[in-house]
Amino acid sequence: MKKKNLLAIGLAFVLSLTLILSGCGNGNGSAGSSSSKSDSSSSEALSGKITIGGSTALQPLAAQAAKEFMEKNPNVQIEVQGGGSGTGLSEAQAGNFDIGMSDVFAESKTNIDAKALKDYQVAVVGMTAAVNPKAGVKNLSKKDLQAVFTGKVKNWKEVGGKNQKITLVNRPDGSGTRATFDQFALDNKTPAEGITQDSTNTVKKIIAETPGAVGYMALSYFTANDKSVVKLSLDGVEATEKTVATGEFPVWAYEHMYTKSKPSKLVKAFIDFMMSDAVQGKDVPAQGYLSVKDMKVQRDATGKQTDK
């Protein structure tokens, strides 16, 4: 009888121990699964704020990409502002912008430590002169364009246009658009004094409202249905995405996004989104830019153009 009792007690103990271990195992498995899901969810979710500023040539594309990125990541806030390439570079270097937008290489600015910044070339922008329709010109030789902007020619009739006084509209010294236009359209000749504006949108507005006015803008600011300004051809070559990609039209620049050293996870995620097919394949051409991948030519920091 005692043996039977001991055997029963032993079996009950083993069964209890098995149930306890099984329960613990299931509990750990469930907790592990829940933890794994939680970790996965937290690793995928992005939150925080990004401040982007600088080049007004890149501003429309950056704003569109920011809108789409925020729609995908509702806990992210992105502020996109202009100010010019010089501002973009200096504020990125100072840490005030998470991303500084620039039409020029950081190496071209004497007050910028290019080695302290990380360069992401996110697009290519073509630029050309914008003219008030009443000027009566659609094409100029490079020589005549330089004569207009250096003040040697003061009336459009001198270069085949109407009897209309020329009014120059320039961007400030810190503008990457100006630096690109001065280097590749004016061959670094010093432009004459005129109206100076920080914003490309304001430049366009002044040109549209001032008979005889001329300035310069990124191709993204010219739209098919907008006849308020005339997009000027150069030496008979129209400024288009195709002629820029082949290097036939010489006035173009990379659109850079600069970060101070290594970017944060959130900033890197946005830059990766800028280089995604969603942006490069759709937004870049729709906004009047070119994908870096579509370029048949390339440029270095000195401005030298070579075939890819």
UniProtKB/TrEMBL annotation:
InterPro entries: PBP_domain, Phos-bd, Phosphate_ABC_transporter. It is found in: Cell membrane. CDD domains: PBP2_phosphate_like_1. It is a lipid-anchor. Residues 41-277 form the PBP domain. The complex is composed of two ATP-binding proteins (PstB), two transmembrane proteins (PstC and PstA) and a solute-binding protein (PstS). Part of the ABC transporter complex PstSACB involved in phosphate import. Belongs to the PstS family. This is Phosphate-binding protein.
